[in-house]
Every structure is written in structure tokens, then in C-alpha cells.
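Postdoc handover notes: sequence design on the structure in folder B. Input C-alpha cells:
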């Protein structure tokens, strides 16, 4: 893909955890063979239930987690093969906005110092140059200059998330990972932050990977959506394709649970709980809950089927 900024190939992430009172350890298969291309200037959303592996995927891209296998290509460089020095340079280009603006800001630092810290660590800019960047970035996210001399506790949740977004922007990154960026905010504030992210995407051609369980946020903000289930991407397409013509039974169930999207239609109730990523089902990983499961789904793994140049689904119903 010509305008591809990030390409993820066959990514696998596992953890070892204690089994607790049972003794011994177990392996959690958090991400299982993810392939993904993120185009420059787009907002790609990753959706799925809690525990589906979407946050682990984001943390692995920013190298907060180490995969056991795979490639993460950013502008033709494999992040998993970089030296520490190369990784430090790369980190300027990719920044993360976390879910909770209450926890992600240091309560003892004034906002100016919070925004100055990444510039001091990652650049050799003079104090005057840093001051100009901080003031310009604050303006971009809708914060007054006066805010810079205050502490985080003096702000509302929405303003704190603006500060967290400013901190992600001061290094002028090309790629932002936003992990549930509005889910900790009051509903009344969410729209402001969603609009701010959309404006930043359009005005500065910033590329976003948006991680969220909120399908309404995705519908408004994203260009494309990837649906994750038990560490796999089971359907991907444009917002129009996924919301107006979902194909995978899991995507249909996920959308049917959102009242604003599923107006006047029946909710699809899935049987059972999400299986443990320590004990993945054989065959199609969704077969234990799928209302349309067939015999072959139990022991055979479906391939990705291209439905259009942008829409792809992993399900035997479309073979
Ligand atoms: Fe359901 Fe089978 Fe499709 Fe899996 S492959 S989603 S079990 S129909």
C-alpha cells in the first residue's frame, strides 16, 4: 500500500501469569497473528470487547510490550529490530493518549513543565524555542496561556484530557495511539474531545489508531474499523462497510448491542462468556458463541476473505 504509515505483520503477543491457588503458570495469548495496515492521515479504530487484545496491540506498537513474533514496520523500518538509540528517535514520531487524564498527568508538575518534559528529553531546543512550541500547542488544543502556570487538579476532566493531548503533540508526531480517549470523561465533555481529535486529524493530517469499545465514537470519528476477537482481527472495512453492511456474526452482535445504531432492530444475544485467552478454542475462535456456527467451524480455522478492496472478513459463511 503506497500511503501506508504503519504495517503490522503476523504479530503475536503472549504473557505468562500465575494460576493462583492452582499453582504453576499459564500462557495468555493476547494477540494472535494480527496483520494490519494503517494509512497516513487516516483514523483507524480497533473495536472489541474488553479483553479482546486491543490495548495490548496498541502497547506493543509503541513498544511498551514485546511480541514473541511478528513485524511492526513504521515508515519502512521494523521497530522490533531497532537499537535503543533508533527507538528513542522513533518515539518522537509516535505518541499515546491514555484513557484516564486524571492518572496520566503528574499532580506535582505545573502544566508548562508537563509539556516541557518530553521536549527536554527528546530535543536540543533552546528554552525560547520550547516556550514557543508549548504556547502554540496549547492553542491548538484550546488551552489558554494562563493554564500553563496551573496544576492538573485545577482543571476539569475535559481540560485535563486536552493537556494530555497537548503533551502527545509537542514532539510533532505523525502517529497517535488513542486508547479509550473519552471513556473516562463525562458524556457532556466527550463530544468536545472527539471534535478536537477530528480537527487535529483533518488540519494536521495526523494519523490515529483509536482503541475503543464505543461504537458510537467510532462511527463519528473513524475512517476504517477493525473488529478484534480473542486477539485476532475478524473483520475490517470502512466505517460505511462495517456499520451499514457488517458481515461477521460477531460484528453484527456487537453493533446490535448499541441502541443509537441498532434503531428498531432486534438485539443479537450471544451465548456464553468470552473464552479465556489462556484457553483458546480450536477452529474459529468465535464458534463457541456464534449463532451461525457449522460443524466445520469447530476444527478448521477460517481464512481472510476479501469482500471488496477495503472490506475483509474471517468467516466460513463467505467462502
Ligand atoms: Fe461463526 Fe463459523 Fe463464521 Fe466462525 S467461521 S464466525 S463459527 S459461521
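Designed sequence:
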Amino acid at each position: 500500500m503506497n500511503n501506508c504509515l504503519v504495517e503490522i505483520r503476523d504479530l503475536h503477543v503472549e504473557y505468562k501469569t500465575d494460576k493462583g491457588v492452582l499453582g504453576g503458570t499459564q500462557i495468555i495469548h493476547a494477540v494472535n497473528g494480527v496483520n494490519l495496515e494503517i494509512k497516513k492521515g487516516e483514523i483507524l479504530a480497533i473495536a472489541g470487547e474488553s479483553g479482546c487484545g486491543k490495548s495490548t496491540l496498541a502497547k506493543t506498537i509503541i513498544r511498551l510490550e514485546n511480541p514473541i513474533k511478528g513485524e511492526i514496520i513504521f515508515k519502512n523500518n521494523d521497530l522490533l529490530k531497532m537499537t535503543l538509540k533508533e527507538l528513542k528517535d522513533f518515539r518522537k514520531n509516535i505518541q499515546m493518549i491514555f484513557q484516564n487524564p486524571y492518572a496520566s498527568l503528574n499532580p506535582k508538575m505545573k502544566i508548562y513543565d508537563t509539556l516541557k518534559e518530553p521536549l527536554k528529553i527528546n530535543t536540543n531546543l533552546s528554552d525560547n524555542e520550547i516556550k514557543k512550541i508549548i504556547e502554540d500547542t496549547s492553542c491548538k488544543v484550546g488551552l489558554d496561556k494562563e493554564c500553563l502556570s496551573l496544576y492538573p487538579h485545577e482543571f476539569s476532566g475535559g481540560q485535563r484530557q486536552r493537556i494530555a493531548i497537548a503533551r502527545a503533540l509537542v514532539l510533532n508526531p505523525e502517529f497517535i495511539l488513542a486508547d479509550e480517549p473519552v471513556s473516562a470523561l463525562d458524556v457532556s465533555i466527550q463530544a468536545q474531545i472527539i471534535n478536537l481529535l477530528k480537527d487535529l486529524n483533518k488540519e494536521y493530517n495526523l494519523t490515529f489508531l483509536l482503541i475503543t469499545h464505543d461504537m458510537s465514537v467510532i462511527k463519528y470519528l473513524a475512517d476504517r474499523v477493525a473488529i478484534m476477537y480473542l486477539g485476532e482481527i475478524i473483520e475490517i472495512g470502512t466505517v460505511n462497510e462495517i456499520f451499514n453492511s457488517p458481515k461477521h456474526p460477531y460484528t453484527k452482535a456487537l453493533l446490535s448491542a448499541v441502541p443509537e445504531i441498532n434503531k428498531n432492530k432486534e438485539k443479537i444475544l450471544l451465548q456464553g462468556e468470552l473464552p479465556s485467552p489462556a484457553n483458546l478454542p480450536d477452529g474459529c475462535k468465535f464458534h463457541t458463541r456464534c449463532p451461525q456456527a457449522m460443524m466445520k467451524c469447530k476444527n478448521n480455522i477460517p481464512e481472510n476473505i476479501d469482500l471488496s478492496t477495503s472490506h475483509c472478513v474471517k468467516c466460513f459463511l463467505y467462502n
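Context for whoever picks this up: The longest helix spans residues 187-204. Don't rerun without checking with the PI first.
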